[in-house]
Amino acid sequence: MSLRSGRRLAAALRGAGVDVREWDVDGALVAELRRDRPDAVAIALHGGEGENGSVQAVLELLGIPFVGTPAPACRRAWDKPTAKAELARSGIDTPDWVALPHTTFRALGAQTVLDAMVDRLGLPLMLKPDQGGSALGAQVVAARSELPAAMVSCLAYADSVLAEQFVTGTEVAVTVVDDSDEPRALPPVEIEVRDGVYDYTARYTPGTATFHCPARLDTETLARLEETALAAHRLLGLRDVSRTDAVVDRDGRVQVLEVNVSPGLTETSLLPTAVRAAGMNLGELYAALIERAISRGSFR
C-alpha cells in the first residue's frame, strides 16, 4: 500500500510541476539522501517506520525538511493506548478500552483475563493491535467464544492488544491540513461498507466500500466532527497532514477511534476523496506543504 500511495503522490506532484525523485526505505536510503540531498521529503509510507517516527527521526538527524509530523508526536499517535488516554484526558470522547500485553494473558491465565475484559467492556468488542495501521489484525468480536482466536490474530501483529467497546454508528474520517496559517479540516468522509466493518480488505479492495463526502450528516454534526479532528491534531502535536477516524454514535456523539499521521493516498484512500470534495488538487496541496516544509527548514 505504501508503494501505491508513493506512486500516486509522485504522479500528482509531477502534474503540479514539482521535480520528484522516489526512494524506498531500505539499506541504501541514508546514503542516497546524503548523495542526492532533496530540498524536502514527502513521506508516503504506512505502518511501522512511516508512522512510528523512525523515518522522521532519521530525516531530523540528517537535517532534511519533510512534510509531516515530528518524530516524538508520531510515536505518541502511533501508540493507540497513549493517544486514546491523551484524547480522553482532554475531554474528547473515545470508546472505553483496555490494553494488555501478551505476557499478562500468559501469566494470569488467558481465559480469566478475557472474562474480566468482557465483564468490564461488554460485547461486541473491537480488538486491534496496540500499534499498527491499515486495520491489520483488527476485528469485531461478538461472542465470548470468538475471543481466543481473535486474540491470537491480533498478537500476530503486535505484542499487546487493545480491546475497546464496539460503537455502532456512522464511521467517518476527517483530514486536517496545515497549508495556511492555521490547520483546517477538509470535508468529513463517510464510510459505508457492505458487511459493516472497515477492515483491511475493505480499505484496499475497490468497490468494497462506498465513500460519501461530505458525510450524510446534519450541519451541526459535521461541524463537531471538524472541530474534534482539529482538536486532536493540535493536542497530539501533529503537523502538515493528519486523518482522524471516528464514529458518530446513535446519540450523535463523536467518538474518536484513532489518529493517523500518514494517511493513505491510493485510489481507495480517504484523504484524496476529501481533497476532491474540497475542490482541491492533491498535487497542488502537497506542493504547498512541501514549500512550507522548505521554508520551515530542517529540524536542527
UniProtKB/TrEMBL annotation:
PROSITE patterns: ATP_GRASP, DALA_DALA_LIGASE_1. GO terms for molecular function: ATP binding; D-alanine-D-alanine ligase activity; metal ion binding. It comes from the Bacteria. GO terms for cellular component: cytoplasm. Residues 84-291 form the ATP-grasp domain. Belongs to the D-alanine--D-alanine ligase family. One of its GO terms (biological process) is peptidoglycan biosynthetic process. This is D-alanine-D-alanine ligase. Keywords: ATP-binding, Cell shape, Cell wall biogenesis/degradation, Cytoplasm, Ligase, Nucleotide-binding, Peptidoglycan synthesis. It is found in: Cytoplasm. Pfam families: Dala_Dala_lig_C.
